[in-house]
Amino acid sequence: MRTTYPNPNPNPNPNPNPNPNPNPYQVNAHDKELVLRSHGLWFWEAEAARSPMASETWPAGGALARIWSYGQRPRVVAWAEDAPLATATVEEYFERLVRPLLLAAILTGRVPALPSLPCDQTPWLTPNNTLPADGVAEWRVWRACRTGFCSYRTVAVGSTSAEELAADEVRAAAFQVRHPFPQAATVARAPLRCVPFAGMMRAALGPLRNGACRSGAAGWLLHPPDWEAYEELLRREGLTRRPFARLAVAAADARMPRGAVGFDAFARSLELHAGAHVLLLSQPLLVEDTPIDVERAYQVYCGAGIDCDAGPACGVYEPPPGVMPSQSSTIL
Amino acid sequence: MRLRALARSVVVLALLLAFLLLSARPQLLLAARLPASRLLLPFDIGVPIDCSITGDMAALRRVARARAVWMARGPELILTAAQRGSGAAVALNALLNLHALGYTHSLLIDNDDGLCEWMSRAASRLRSDATATAVRGTPCLVDSWWRSIVLGNSSGRRQHATRTPVLSSSATFYVRLVVLARLVRLGYNVLTLDVDVAILDDVYAHLHSAALSGRFTLMFASENRDRANGLQNGLVYAVGARRDGAAAWVLAETIDRLLRTLDACENGGTPCPPGSWLRGAWLFHWSDAMDQTSLIDVCHTAAARDGRIFWLQVGRVVHRGWPFRQLAADGADDTTLLHQLQAARGRHGVLQVKTRRGESPSVGAGSRGAGLASATGEAEQRSKPFRANWIDASLRLTTAEEESAGEGDPARRWAARFGTSEADERALWGSIRPAVPLARQLPTEVAALLDAAWQHRCPNASTLLPETPPELKATWAREQELCQYAALSPRRGGVGFALAEDDRGLLPHVRGALSQAWQVALDTDIAADSSEAAPGAEQRRASTTVVRDAVGGAAWAAAPDGDEAVVQLPAWVVSHWGVARYGLVGALVPRTLIFHAVNAHDLP
Lengths: 332, 604
Prior knowledge:
The structure holds two protein chains of two kinds. Chain A is of the alpha/beta class.
């Protein structure tokens, strides 16, 4: 006969658990979405289920909700498509590409848009390309990496060559592929580029170490596929009155290292294009002599977030006559 | 008279028209069989439907009948689940994906709270009326029973969340498995998908092929193509499964293992003496994906087919669970104990599974039960006790369309479409058996070490002192509390509990109140006839010879009638990011049918 043991404490008080357990399905949830969006496997209407308020939910991406569901057309600072974006290290990427972008966003009240990167000129993003140590089992099965850049750190998307694309078009026609995601074909036909995982940024210095921030929740941020889709939307709607503008920074001071620019020159060049809806940076920059208040704003960019109703970043875009935005411009 | 004749003609014509319509669209038959008063159409995603087994058991049945569509392999449903916070946008993306494919038989499950209402508001912001209508018409299910188990309830009678928020976080994701298990018990084919998937083509053309649905009643995605422990539950497809067969049992037992663990030590469940590791089993962080790990364990158990059970979660506990994780930081003696425990994992079959090369399973509905035994080489397996019956074999898949067309070599056409080679068509499969008797204890060596580790930790539990750093106070307080619950506090001595032999390494093998409620629900569902369960559900029973896995267990088909087969699908059917990044997605012609964005992350 078995003994029944009394319950010594049927209802102990709650206490913090010694096993910290982030919700497993939320770990890197933003990168899961980023993978889908990078491949065009995303219906932008789905942003209707995201909060327009930064920081309300994680990952919120308030800017995406406002663009795709609330009819807002926030002003953006981004990298020009033809900008030389080669970087040798992740530190260089942050210093010369991300930092000037965030500084420009802070100074002009725009939403910064991270660029996709040239895969073959970003070695820190695609280590072990020839023999991925982190995917040996899969490598044995599939034998080849289509893009040549099958790293865990990035999403490589697009066509690697005109020949590959032509062959792909023939196969798509032969097998009558009917893709349910309309944007996927556009992504596949575009030239090869690499989208860094947001998780990569936790290893680097700067405000994007903040997970909620790099997800677009606590400080507004557009990742490469978000910006590509938004840019296409702006062009489709006929952005003519306040066009895209390339930032021409004054010649660097001779005393500065290569590619460096003084803060004052940087700020002055931003003012020249204050009316542009989209400001495009065109040259990697090392912004020097940043005033302490701006530097502080940069460091807390993710902590402070952007007050949408107070700044121009969330300003409602007014389309040219005859071109109506797809949604109501009212902030609900 | 003339009017009467005219009326009669109209009635005859109407009946004829109805017959023709129903013959052409069997899914209409599902709705037509429901009494009008119980028809819930149209659904409103913003109005949650409670499918709790302790409430209206018929609620889920009504939703399923109204929503299912009839396809080549029977009545089909698609399940997906999410939570409001981080999951709403990706869940809406998934619903839009289903809509784009013309699938109208999906059900959404709200994992925690507020998703249904949130999605309703989102639907109102969609631009296209057709899309908004489709999303708004998706039934949104909640399970107040499961929520009360996992999150606690207002009565405060039993609040597991207050005892173990770690457990609650993972257990939340069992809700869809609860619904899935019940729907299979009711006779439906159910495709269960994570929300972070993209379906890239009509999946049924492939899933319903003789090569897949003709062989397997239970399909999973794969983490790793060649590892039996790599079963991935981001996709679970139960098709043609018998309501009392092995696939249904695997799903039901996965839920039941958690319930029995929660029942242990109280609730009428497994008695656990002081010093037994089971006392704290429900406190541990079993795994990051506890639902998936538990499914793996039960699949291994069903595939063993000789009564052995697999409980690999115990191995995870050694890695993850306090106090075992704490042992590693405690010093040489503790580390030795931990190493012994970890080494023991590798020496015992219940904690480790290997696979082997073998023959392809035969095709045809008749082979799903009888006939599989010979292909799995049971005699050989018995001589290798650490192995489950997972066979690495080629599937040579074709689409149902290609099979019926009889064009050339259809397998090669499919292979060309997905760019596969013969090696890519290999997959792990196994023959599974229901109602494996519940195991009472772990193997002796593991049992002794596990109990010893548990007993060892608490006497060394950190003592809260005034100078304890604030950041550690909460953790140490919790530790003290756990030890006190287990009657192992330093004040009580701790070391040297003399456990009786049959109390060592206890597994939760006795059904308490939670588990019993679940088993009763399973029997209630299988008792439902075709007027409430899936149409034709009576034909989906394997046997009238009933077996049970333990006292109080639900009814299952005796072997070999209940035997079925399970497969881990190859990457070109469903592929996670770790594999898909090699080029299965991203080109104009995807090389996988379903892309699962899981495992998308950077390395440190």
